[in-house]
Amino acid sequence: MNAGPRGGAAKATAPTGDLLDGVRRWLAESGADPTPARVAQALRERGGRVLGDAEVLGAAVRLRSELVGSGPLEPLLADPEVTDVLVSAPDRVWVDRGAGLELTGVIFPDAVAVRRLAQRLASVTGRRLDDARPWVDARLPDGTRLHAVLPPVAVGCACLSLRVVRSRAFTLGELTRAGMVPPGGEGVLRALVDARLSFLISGGTGTGKTTLLSALLSLTGPSERIVLAEDSSELRPDHPHVVRLESRPANQEGAGLVTLEDLVRQALRMRPDRLVVGEVRGAEVVHLLAALNTGHSGCGTVHANAAADVPARLEALGTAAGLDRAALHSQLAAALSVVVHLVRERSGRRRIAEVRVLERGDDGLVRTVPALRWSEGAFVPERGWARLVELLDAGDPGGPGGAAARAEEAS
What we know:
It contains 14 helices and 15 strands. It is of the alpha/beta class and 411 residues long. The chain has three domains: 17-68, no CATH class; 71-163, Beta-Lactamase (2-Layer Sandwich); 172-409, Rossmann fold, CATH 3.40.50.300. A nine-stranded mixed β-sheet has the order 9-8-10-11-7-12-13-14-15, with helices on both faces. It has a six-stranded antiparallel β-sheet with strand order 3-2-1-6-5-4, covered by helices on one side.
């Protein structure tokens, strides 16, 4: 410890907010890499007072995390159980660990610190976030999905939403143990993949659609080529032959836009055995249905409140893209076979609510027919079960009856 003016030990003091701001400015203006050594050096040189080693180390860690990491959110994002981190105020930081939102003890110094972090994270993705462009939707280098909104659009404080992407896909067994799939239900889902049926996973936000789709894609045979088209790369199937395509927004000059519709068109030229659209939400539905009517096998997710609403949801998307109602239902009837619908219970548990098959009525419109319904003990067969068995049997590579037999074990 350095000696004080009277030869006694000087009292170490914690760095003030002004000091930390000064170090931030110095690092920004110098362009120096914020290594721990440089941050510590800047603190000591600009301190104007004696700082103890513990204070310097703590401030250096804090500043480096803020400058090159996720600041106070870093421990939350590093937690393997956390799926979402939400910031709505300096002292209102929430996480979701699969059982609903929990308020954490993380606190930002003020609203300026939240705004600073949001802007820095946006800059990491090469996106602009300021008063002229007060929101951003992007993906961080580690795959985390970032959404941020600045005041005055977000009232009072910048709002941050971070969706953590799991580094590997859950296995179907893990999802069964977690309660997403009922006991014995693995057989149906494996048969669905083996039969190469085209399907959609539907559900609301946060119900686990991407999680289940990644697990099912991991069951695809190793000789098959999977081509993924996503707005934000979130699917992580455990498979040896995956091609990932990701859309991108226009740059500040308005050039360089790549839409999901563009990606689906390009994917068709890449010899996909499985064409996957991460989330069907726009004009790409037209090209996807066309592809599934020309011999391709495909799947994806779609937002819907109920499995019965999926045809209407696709109809709305297709109509907005210029496809008339009759044409869309004709293509839909021939393109898709199954809808797997997920729900999220009040307890936070995500689970399969039902499995439905598609059926075209006398009026030419496609409807979904319940085939399997969730129960705690096993799937319960419904009116469309016989049709589902027919579809699985027809597509089974192991010969007639193989897929259907495996599915029968689950009911």
